[in-house]
């Protein structure tokens, strides 16, 4: 038995999800006549209280499109130094949108309104134009922690006062929502755009959604085409997304419980000296002095446990739909 905790993207579609995919009615999405893609876009927009949505191949693409639409070359984006948009998108925002980034050091990746206010540049020809604030929820590199909605509302106030747009990289937003009990439309009210991944905890094989106003999504659709993301009978994949939104949201709580159990297990592992607080489905732990993450990950790999090095001396494990209680029992046996 291989225990794969590298990411929540490693899941395979369930039988019921595959059936929904096989049964999908499709068209050509570049002509906007794929009924299943249109249904997924309408459903997700309504869920978050937006006018419109755009279904894309990846969360990197939805983030990159959003940054492109919100900014013009020479602008700056304000975000946490741990942000996926900065660290893990191939330098995309700098090369696709020709923008610079002001990197703030937040609380495990969560920035606050005061930090944002203090980092907005004055209207001065020496400075880039502060144009966009981007938040991440949950924070991947912050161990899956999530924002307090009241803080986000404060940040929104600062953005409004200074004419900045506010984007959310919500790759794992549903993981936050099932913990806080907040509603998707409460998030729709504060962000100018949101990116949601269907291929993470929700268990779809492919796909992310970009949400926003009708005008924003119209521009986003053009950028998606330019980035090479115009796709054709994407309805087969969109059907998996619809299935995921209908059936795989509430169960995220199970992933969170198992991650909590893993936290307790890794605390008993001699090589581990610290574990980041576990809030959702991500467990990040620190290795004892002198140990390298790449070596330790290789050692676990030999025991049939797959996980990801996360910096020099940190390791990440992520729970998901294909990691059940049997895997958990087996993980404990192999680890300690
Ligand atoms: C996974 C992820 C993305 C998007 O990743 P893709 O693999 O391109 O779909 C964006 N932001 C965060 C925080 C992520 O974890």
Automatic annotation (TrEMBL):
GO terms for MF: L-allo-threonine aldolase activity
Domain of life per record: Bacteria
UniProt modified residues of type N6-(pyridoxal phosphate)lysine: 200
InterPro entries membership: ArAA_b-elim_lyase/Thr_aldolase, Low_specificity_L-TA-like, PyrdxlP-dep_Trfase, PyrdxlP-dep_Trfase_major, PyrdxlP-dep_Trfase_small
Cofactor dependence: pyridoxal 5'-phosphate
Record-linked Pfam families: Beta_elim_lyase
Protein name: Threonine aldolase
Organism: Siphonobacter curvatus
